[in-house]
């Protein structure tokens, strides 16, 4: 950037929150604004809220550019969200163009977890790391890859859809249309669904209480709270999820032989309760040389990884 | 190279054959020498045969360097074969050093399928392609990755072990020590084992005849021959294998969003009988944007891909 006083907007559009930040070139956050995504209202309403979030942040500020990430397969040629299994109606939405036209500023887009990988690589736990895989365990599972120091996005910009590795060839239908995807076993949605299934089968657990008595409000977070307070079933659910997290990590370790795997997304809040057993699976089942080489850690930038990655993308492009 | 008249040795050590070639900098093969690996005799005997193969090829020839690939996880720091599921006894064997000392020439090593990817990228079907995954469907399954035009080998040199993606979380033991690996479903060994299992169960098939009446001599190749001659069970075995090949390809397409997947190894000889149904699975189950972007084709350099990749590695390093 020619003028270092200019700031950059980074926006991360997730399944539940729109997180918009204003940062300088060092990744220091100057202001922030977040809104509920309310994805079920469809793309038009969500885009309206994205524009509103950016407008409120940038009013009267000199902006160098806007970076934006969405949970979904990215189409680099068209700056579009090609497909998002967890955002109803998002199919070939040219979000980058819409935002560029709205604000008349240089605007760049990418998949949210690819940006989280970039964010961690530039400002967080991945600084100086050559080979890094970011695993976003949220409502679904997304991924981002740094290969030999560069963000890897593939031919169309849609690489890193690690949540849709088939880990159970006999598995059930996934929201993406395939079957047996990792996301069906190790995402926030999977944890909540399995908890509800057990509660409906009459298994005694305190999870319902943590969801305010409403089975429809059970989330991975309520399961985690119940587990922390000693609920046996909740604990078992998290152990089982950790095992499946580990299975997917084995695949990533054998395929990428990375220095570092960073775990982000909502499930990362479970910390070592989730991570330690998952790492154990990697040690047992991945090739020894790659299992020894890899560190599996919690992402450092937390909920801001994607938005800071969007800032890093703008810095990289302008 | 300073002297273009110098030639390069490329050696590919596979589970069944040692393929050594002598080539110029354009990848033109000037001479070749192959030997049975006889892997069951252990590393010392195999290394003896590798040295013999190279000696016979290089006698009286001006050699610039030697490149060598082995079917197994590669340890870049030590130029060693860290572990090879299909080569008994290969555990931390410093092959590169042994060959360098034997011949006193610049010597470089890598995993065989990583070299096949490099070979196809430099001299074969992958020339000019930025993002390429080579899938070696042999006795086991190996892989090699070109990412953004560069060979990707990961942190220790052991990346690309795609055969050990878990595709069946409830699957049976793999030679690598894990369970449910892709290699258990879609390799030459898997085809032969499933054929034998059915024959032992008394299923009527002509496969035995193609193995000279000896059930112990059934290979993927004999199954293919029987299928070509109209044997129903053989045909069904190949269809089922093709389905499982497709499942692994879905994962690679979602993870890498590559321009090109090249299918090599012994099973590639089955051609469209294997490839067409596998591609169908990719079209049905991978993310649409990535499924549309990828071409899935047979490797072009055939059995020489690894050895030519070893030549390319020497050209890259010296």
Explain what the structure shows:
2 copies of one chain form a homodimer. The first copy, chain A, is α/β, with parallel strands linked by helices and 318 residues long. The first copy, chain A, has 2 domains: 7-120 and 303-317, Nucleotidyltransferase, domain 5, CATH 3.30.420; 128-299, ATPase, nucleotide binding domain (Nucleotidyltransferase, domain 5). The first copy, chain A, is 39% helix and 22% strand. Chain A has a 5-stranded mixed sheet, sandwiched between helices. In chain A, strands 11-10-9-12-13 form a 5-stranded mixed sheet, sandwiched between helices. A 3-stranded antiparallel sheet of chain A has the order 5-6-7. In chain A, helix 5 runs antiparallel to helix 8, helix 7 packs across helix 8 (232-256) and helix 8 (232-256) crosses helix 9. The longest helix of chain A has 25 residues, at 232-256. The model of chain A has no long low-confidence stretch (mean pLDDT 94). Chains A and B meet through helix 8 and helix 10 of A and helix 8 and helix 10 of B.
């Amino acid at each position: 950037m020619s003028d270092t006083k200019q700031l950059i907007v980074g926006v991360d559009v997730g399944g539940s929150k729109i997180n918009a930040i204003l940062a300088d070139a060092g990744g220091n956050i100057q202001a922030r604004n977040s809104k509920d995504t309310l994805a079920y209202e469809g793309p038009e309403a969500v885009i309206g809220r994205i524009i509103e979030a950016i407008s409120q942040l940038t009013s009267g500020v000199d902006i160098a550019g806007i970076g934006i990430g969405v949970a979904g397969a990215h189409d680099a040629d068209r700056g579009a969200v090609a497909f998002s299994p967890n955002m109803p109606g998002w199919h070939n939405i040219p979000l980058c163009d819409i935002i560029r036209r709205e604000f008349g500023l240089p605007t760049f887009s990418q998949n949210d977890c690819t940006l989280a990988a970039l964010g961690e690589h530039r400002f967080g736990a991945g600084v100086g790391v050559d080979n890094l895989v970011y695993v976003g365990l949220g409502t679904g599972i997304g991924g981002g890859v740094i290969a030999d120091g560069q963000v890897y996005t593939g031919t169309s910009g849609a690489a890193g859809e690690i949540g849709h590795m088939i880990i159970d060839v006999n598995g059930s239908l996934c929201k993406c249309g395939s079957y047996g995807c990792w996301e069906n076993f190790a995402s926030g949605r999977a944890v909540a669904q399995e908890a509800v299934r057990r509660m409906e089968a009459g298994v005694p657990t305190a999870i319902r209480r943590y969801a305010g008595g409403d089975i429809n409000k059970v989330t991975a977070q309520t399961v985690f709270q119940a587990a922390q307070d000693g609920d046996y079933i909740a604990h078992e659910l998290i152990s089982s999820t950790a095992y499946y997290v580990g299975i997917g990590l084995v695949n990533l370790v054998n395929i990428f032989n990375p220095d570092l795997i960073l775990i982000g997304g909502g499930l990362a809040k479970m910390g070592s309760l989730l991570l330690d057993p998952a790492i154990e699976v990697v040690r047992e089942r991945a090739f020894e040389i790659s299992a020894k080489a890899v560190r599996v850690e919690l992402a450092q930038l937390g909920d801001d990884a994607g938005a800071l990655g969007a800032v890093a993308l703008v810095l990289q492009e302008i």
